[in-house]
Amino acid sequence: MSIIDFATKELTNLGWLGSEDEMSDMMAKNLLxxxxxxxxxxxxxxxxxxxxSMFNKLANFKPLTPLTGExxxxxxxxxxxxxxxxxxNARCSSVFKNAKGECYDIDGKVFxxxxxxxxxxPYKSYYTCRDSRVPVTFPYTVPDKPIYEWRxxxxxxxxxxxxxxxxx
Length: 168
Prior knowledge:
Blueprint: H1 3-14, H2 22-40, H3 45-59, E1 74-76, E2 85-89, E3 95-98, E4 103-105, E5 109-116, E6 122-127, E7 134-135, E8 147-150, E9 162-163, E10 166-167
Parallel strand pairs: 5-8
Antiparallel strand pairs: 1-2, 2-3, 3-4, 4-7, 5-6, 9-10
């Protein structure tokens, strides 16, 4: 079975291919078009995973090599008056440098806490805030995913008393 046959069956099973929902049908056709390009290039399992890993980074505007912090990497943001932010990294939009020259990644941490769903079941609720920033030193390799950290917030409405392990 080819990758196109496999994907066609999966997208049909998902209900996207041939769907009355235009967006689902369009996405299914776009995915098949991308997979056809990969299939036509004749990649093996190894080279396909290598290609897709790099494609995923580039499609998500993530750099392939570490950031250097050199002057050419920064866009001046002072004209936007962003609370003391002076520069945004041109190669990774989540990395900033303030007026003091301190660099940080705003996507460094994602906090979570326990919440109660409409069905009464606990679930993890994720959020970011100013404390999500992590300091950056160069060279800086942008991580594939943020640090996930439990934190009981002061948000309103207040979540039930809890620990990282669960609700009290």
